[in-house]
Amino acid sequence: MLTSLKKQPADRIIGLSALYNADPRQEKIDLGVGVYKDAHGNTPIMRSIKKAESHLWKTESTKTYTSMTGDSGFHNAMADLVLADSVDRDRLSFCATPGGTGAIHHVLELVKLTESNPKIWFSDPTWGNHLTIAKHLKMVVGKYSYFNNETRAVDFEAMVSDLSKISNGDIVVLHGCCHNPTGANLNNEQWNIIADLLLEKDAIPFIDIAYQGFGEGIEEDAFGTRLLASKFPEMFIAASCSKNFGIYRERCGIVITVSKNPDISSITQGNLSYVNRQNFSFPPDHGARLVTMVLTDPDLRADWVSELEQVRVGMLDARTHLAEALRKECNSNRFDFLEHHRGMFSRLGATEEQVNKLRDKFGIYMVFDSRLNIAGVTLDKVNTIAKAVIEVGI
Ligand SMILES: Cc1ncc(COP(=O)(O)O)c(C=O)c1O
After folding, report:
1. Does the annotation count 203 as an active-site position?
2. 221 Cβ below 6 A of ligand 1
3. What is the number of other CB atoms lying within 10 angstroms of the CB of residue 50?
4. Which part of the chain is CATH 3.40.640.10?
5. Can you give the pTM of this predicted structure?
6. Where in the chain is the domain with CATH 3.90.1150.10?
7. Is the Cβ atom of 250 under 6 angstroms away from ligand 1?
8. 55-77: per-residue pLDDT in tens?
9. CA 48/CA 40 separation, integer angstroms
10. Is 127 in the pocket of ligand 1 (CB under 6 A)?
11. Is residue 86 within 8 Å of 230, Cβ to Cβ?
12. Which residue puts its alpha carbon closest to atom 16 of ligand 1?
């Protein structure tokens, strides 16, 4: 039977990591992988998480199952973090999932259960997994304009124009903050315009928020999500704890849905539970428990907030240094967009040929669409990167 399987296309980002690992050059620089790295190139465990883990080890008395959709303490802590008081709690339903990826998959499965077959609209470009998960689930996918490759900013006019053409009941996926792969984000005024447009179109927003705290700050990064939650009768949210709590391998994420009223939210809760039961039964709990402890213990939370702020400011510094080095190198301000982008990524706007040249000639690895991980731009490498970028003609 297995002989009838076709070879799956390789994941290009994972393939890139393999290429990087196999590269014997000492001076190689990894700007490809989507993981936060500190100045020493490490992805450390946060202090607050370590403390929570140590406390959990001493106090946890059972490893029996949680509830089918995860622990209610985790649901509430995440609702506070992502939504604050933007929407009544009795309109929310929750499901803990293996990572943000699990949450995205879960939302789309829930949508399938509604049998309404909406078109799912993604930004062009978007995180590659969005499209492949939706296609894997045999859903109808559309793309709306988002990024202007010349200005390296959001092409807001084109975005509005495309979203004006969608049908009622369609689902529009928006990155809550720190757009992956471009780094270009909506400002608050633009969020308001998109909210009004989607309301007018009777569309349903689906927010993927995977980098809360990496952009402008923990509260600021939730602006769009909270705005939509305060206005829409229905909405989906997939939140990831991988990056902002640094617990990538624990696989911790959550689905939060907003329903029209508490009765519907209770039915939605049952359906979220059903989807979990059919897929993997109970969700992983360790990461969720750590996140709950960090968010609800005032000391741990204060420590986490300061650690996350350090990560955020470190990435802003890297942006400033790289833009400055490029300004010197090319005698122009055409790379200043790096300072305007937010989050872990920026799209340089280079051709694949230029990206390959950076890799082959200089050992600088970035994703084929010229997405670079700004956390990999450490102070000791910034001039090397700037020189190479100009030398390959970007
Ligand atoms: C836009 C976006 N959404 C969701 C995720 C999900 O991450 P995870 O499944 O590791 O929590 C990522 C991770 O790279 C992402 O970039």
Report:
1. no
2. no
3. 13
4. 49-296
5. 0.96
6. 10-44+301-391
7. no
8. 999 999 999 999 999 999 999 99
9. 20
10. yes
11. yes
12. 180
